[in-house]
Write a structure and sequence with these properties.
This protein is mostly beta strands. It folds into three domains: about 55-130, Immunoglobulin-like (Sandwich), CATH 2.60.40.1120; about 145-240, Immunoglobulins (Immunoglobulin-like, Sandwich); about 240-334, Sandwich (Immunoglobulin-like). Helix content is about 10%, strand content about 45%. The protein has one helix at about 5-30, and strands at about 55-65, 75-80, 85-90, 95-100, 105-110, 115-125, 130, 145-155, 165-170, 185, 195-200, 200-210, 220-230, 235-240, 240-245, 260-265, 275, 285-290, 290-300, 305-310, 315-320, 330-334. A five-stranded mixed β-sheet has the order 17-16-19-20-22, with no helix packed on it. Strand 19 (about 290-300) and strand 20 form a beta hairpin. The longest helix has 27 residues, at about 5-30. The radius of gyration is 46 Å and the shape is flat. The N and C termini lie far apart (about 100 Å).
Amino acid sequence: MSRRKRRFALWFPAIVFGSLAVGLVIEHTRPSHSDLPIFDPPAKVSFEAIEIPRGEHTLEGIVRDSSGAPTEGVLVELVQREELFWDYTDERGTFRIDGLFEGELSIALIQVAHPPVKRTVSVPGGTVDWMLPEPYAAPESLPEIRRQALYGSVSSPLGAPVGGSELVLEPFENEDPLSGLLPRRAPIGNAGNFNVVDLAIGRYRVAVVPGWAAGGSWPRLAELSFEHGGELRDLEILLESGEVSGTLRDREGEAVQRALVTVTSVAKPERVWPPVRSDGEGSFSVRDLPEGEYDVAVRAGSAQRTRRVSVRARRSTRVELGPVEVGGDDVQDE
């Protein structure tokens, strides 16, 4: 065994026993719990019961309807000295309220079928006999809502697919609010057909929005108004929207594929149509454009083209962009 290990073996027991001895000395010199001051428990405090002063008088009586028959379930209530007193009439129309003070009281009689009524009475007094006013008149019945299914079809003069578009029906503002006319929407099938079940009869404004704008308010590809419920049951809608098309080629005459094309309304620049990409032939087409002016922007690599075009209803407008140099600094705005 090395000298260091022997030295540790000698000192370790001494350290342990020394620590125990110090702990015992501290424990014996610490004040015991018996040396701490002892306090007597506080004396019990008793409070006198609070008694709410009650009067010695009673108000009782009977409540009748306008025909003189005793009425059950009438709430009879009053406030005296900031305290609420109340009772309901029983099957005999009688009530009883105790604990009242002498004086003049204002009584409220409340029953759901009758207008509320106030009565004044002096206490003490005899038994009261009160009569309710005439009951409320029965509410007028709501007019019958007449409904009828609406069928129809949507087509595009440009041959564009209409499936997935949405039909929008909006009632005229001056229609009777109790007629049951509400805004309705219906999907347009792949064949262009639609069916709106249980449509309330009345006057509507009709619009068609593309599928990507379903639930929105624009662009409106067709707008008209009609009277639902007459002889017309099948509604035929011809879209009035136009389109923009073009072809992209580079300076060698090759098709520029997958160029990004965006169309923005000039009148409302916040309205941007979903972008499209040129196909394998370099061709592109943007549909669902109401009549108006638009900026057509094309990006192909670093090349950019912008052209302003006028779109006419039910027409396809061709936009000429010229040759595009995809890899060069080719930016043109017109």
